[in-house]
Request: fold
Amino acid sequence: MSMLHEDRLFIGGEWQAPKSGARLESIDPSTEEVWATVPDAGPADVDLAVAAAREALDGPWSRLTATRRGRLLTELAALLERDATSLGELESRDNGKPLRDTVGEVRRAAEWLRYYGGAADKLQGDVIPYRPGAHAFTRLEPVGVVGAVTPWNSPISLYAWKLGPALATGNVVVLKPAEQTSVSALAFARLVHDAGLPPGVVNIVPGRGAGAGHALVSHPGVDKISFTGSYETARQIMRSAADGLKRVSFECGGKSPHIVFADADLERAITVATHSAFRSTGQSCSAGSRLLVQREVYDEVLDALTARAERIRVGPALDPRTHIGPQTSAEQLDKTRRYIELGLDEGGRVVTGGGRPLGLDRGYFVQPTVFEGLANGSRLAQEEVFGPVLTVIPFDTEEEAVAIANDTTYGLVAGLWTRDVGRAHRVSERLQAGLVSVNTFRPVHWTLPYGGYKQSGLGRENGLAVLREYVEVKSVVVDYGDDAPEDPFAD
Ligand code: NAD
Reply:
């Protein structure tokens, strides 16, 4: 297959070479070969993108009706749907996820855009009973120029998560995709152009975190940052955003507890627990990476889960038989391997997996791995691996399950399996996570607000809740009374 060369950034509705002429190489993680090059934007390019966004915000974009903005999002959704297979193929090569996952993600991204397209003209302010003789109301105005920074694990989904609400509320966006997976971002940019969005409303500037990323989040012309990625980067961004008090929202991953009580439908719980731990090769912020199992069913669950994990077919992303692909980068594979070593050093036992799958000599592959024998306080049970590594921990009582589940610095997702309705509500109430599910796991959906407690993030994405993150609320008071104003300086 010939190399793909993308050499231009999408700024102000036009294709522009980066000022420095620099490029990044994109590696196919199934083969370890460079398969594409992408432009590497720098601060000068970010300046241009922010200026183009501001011009659009002050110009044609602000003159469109909310209904029209919504239509443009719906149009973009249709183009994504049309090109789902070709975009999925690009993503599979860039990111290593199997084709059925990436094509499915593109289709779901279209649903996200449709949902916000429909919401665009339904967001409204309030009339407020302030006092007689005055008409008081609120206006919901766009925050302005949004800097969106995204990771490599679900690229196209996250473009839709950020663009949908930002554009529905009348903002403009400069998007900095992850350097490992920028190819599909530029294909996405073509669709933004073809959907008829006015020039500058969406600008796409691939580049490194320390280059284009830092330039964007510290740019004085950016009003809000919407970021998904690691906690460490979120902290740096918060510091950069302090000047000018930029609005920030962060989604930073988790170490999500998945609790199986003895009274649960174990067959279903085990199927879902295996899927939620290993889907996307564990490279998911919502992975159920800590499985807490009530002691009386612990052996039964562990045996069944192990058998299922061993049936997962690991393979190249474009092979239709593949269930899970490689890790996205060599760095991520090293990180996962280091965590497997660490788990062993901490006294854990590998029940299954732990190494490279047989017959896959090239590519960033690792087996689905199940650990037991680790305390919840161990580093493997506390830190986000972002690989296919599951830690299984027994518990005795409901009280203990909740205590272990909440004993983490994260708080993105949590789930429990039980047939006891009272327990379902009691435990859901006590779990510290932005998304709690009973008898299912991580129902991530455009209609459901999503985001973290504690160090998993700040603010919410998805649902109608996210729209508030992209508006300034302005109170307006119009006094129409005839009474003379009180004059405290009259005497
Ligand atoms: P990261 O936080 O380094 O990168 C995410 C995005 O931020 C990328 O676009 C990157 O270029 C950009 N970035 C990096 N430094 C920046 C800076 N100083 N200013 C502005 N932008 C910057 O995450 P990563 O390297 O892709 O992955 C590291 C770890 O983060 C993973 O192993 C995993 O634990 C976690 N992660 C979480 C998610 C999630 O969905 N929550 C996604 C990817 C990674």
